[in-house]
Amino acid sequence: VEGTCKAIEISGMGGWALPGNLLGIYLPNIFFKDSATENSFGIYQNRNYSLPPEAFDNCLNIISSYSGNTEETVSSFEEVLEKKLPCVGIAAGGKVVEMCQSNNVPFVLMPPPEKILQPRMALACNFAAVFQVLANSGMIEEKKKEFEEAASKLKENSQSFEEQGKKIAEEVAGKTPVVYSSTRFKSLALIWKIMFNENAKTPAFWNFFPELNHNEMIGFTKPQGKFHLVVLRDKNTHPRNLKRFEITSGILKNYGFDSTIVDIPENGMLYRIFSTLQIGCWASYYLALKYEIDPTPVDMVEELKVALTK
Fold first, then answer.
1. How far is CA 206 from CA 25, 100, 101, 268, 299, in A?
2. Distance between CA 8 and CA 130 in Å, rounded?
3. pLDDT at 31
4. Alpha-carbon distance 111 to 169, whole Å?
5. What pLDDT score does 32 carry?
6. Which value, in Å, is the radius of gyration of the alpha carbons in the chain?
7. What SS3 state is found at 97?
8. Which pLDDT score, from 0 to 100, does residue 123 have?
9. 209 and 242 in contact (C-beta within 8 Å)?
10. Cis omega (within 30 of 0) on the bond before 119?
11. Which of 217, 210, 218, 191 is nearest to 278 (CA)?
């Protein structure tokens, strides 16, 4: 596929499509200059049983499923193979690996389940795998040193992230978390929401500034439950957005809703992304403990899978 693709399509469900969201934050900071330049390319995600139109146009299809058996992803992979589209697999085993092997498709073999515990805990690993596939294909520049430096800083500050997460859980407990961010980091708000869902087993919602000021905030006029705002604040965002963070928190405070401000750490974009996600992961973990629930299993998802086989 080297040198032939002008876009990537990640076919995956749940957390296994999320590297596309993170690439959308990280890549423009380094590689994207203008949509007309040689080095720019589209990043698409497919969370369905069949391929969207962009998958057929000079596109590298990345088939991403931890188990390798996700039915929507396997269905899309079958279409990729039928149409003979450029593709790469990422999985720990299952049908995706079998299909790659039998069709001579390159694939990345992820760590086994005993190393990961839950697929959602492999987001950083999955992101790195997708990034390396793109680097190996000549679509982006290699950044191994930057990845290593970010990993070292993350490890160095892990205790601080845990403490922040524990404090957030104390403030959110008993309420529905609503996670807000600037437009640039809206995918981090989405992933925080997902972590609250999967780890703390509780509803959560997300949105981003300035769009939410034009619609969602009005919904708090007559709320039907208890909510707590968690604002992921990027101090480098537009000054008007920073003002919106403060004013919105103040207005909603008058309606009975408290806010927790989480400043996105500085020190390089990779570090900013994954430090913020670590804080969210700890927050959802400690919220699960507050609710006296095991954060690991996702029983409702397993129940659904069994029902779909009948």
1. 17, 36, 39, 24, 23
2. 10
3. 47
4. 30
5. 41
6. 20
7. helix
8. 93
9. no
10. no
11. 191
Residues of the chain where predicted confidence (pLDDT) is lower than 50: 2, 30-37
SS3 content of the chain, % helix, strand, coil (to 5): 55, 15, 30
Element (H or E) spanning 250, and its range?
helix 239-254
Residue 5: the pLDDT is 81
- Cα distance between residue 262 and residue 247, in whole Å: 16
DSSP E strands: which ranges in the chain?
7-11, 42-46, 59-64, 87-91, 107-109, 176-182, 205-209, 227-233, 259-263
Strands (E) across 114-209 are located at 176-182, 205-209
Amino acid identity for residue 248 in this structure: T
The answer to whether the CB of 66 falls within 8 A of the CB of 119 is yes
Contact yes or no for 264/272 (Cβ under 8 A): yes
Sheet holding 42-46, edge to edge: 42-46, 7-11, 59-64, 87-91, 107-109
For residues 192-213, b (16+ Cβ closer than 10 Å) or e, as one string? bbbbbbbbbbbebbbbbbeebe
Six token digits for residue 267:
């020190």
Between CA 168 and CA 28 the distance in angstroms is 30
Are 209 and 260 a contacting pair, CB within 8 Å? Answer: no
Name the residue among 288, 216, 224, 284 with its Cα closest to residue 256: 224
Q: Which residue has the tokens 């987001």?
A: 123
* pTM value surpassing 0.90: yes
| Under 8 Å between Cβ of 40 and 33 | yes
pLDDT tens digits, one per residue of 60-110: 999 999 999 999 999 999 999 999 999 999 999 999 999 999 999 999 999
* Phi and psi torsions of 205, nearest 5°: -140, 165
pLDDT of residue 138: 83
Residue 4: what pLDDT? 67
Q: For tokens 């954060």, name the residue.
A: 295
CA separation for the pair 222, 205 (Å, rounded) = 17
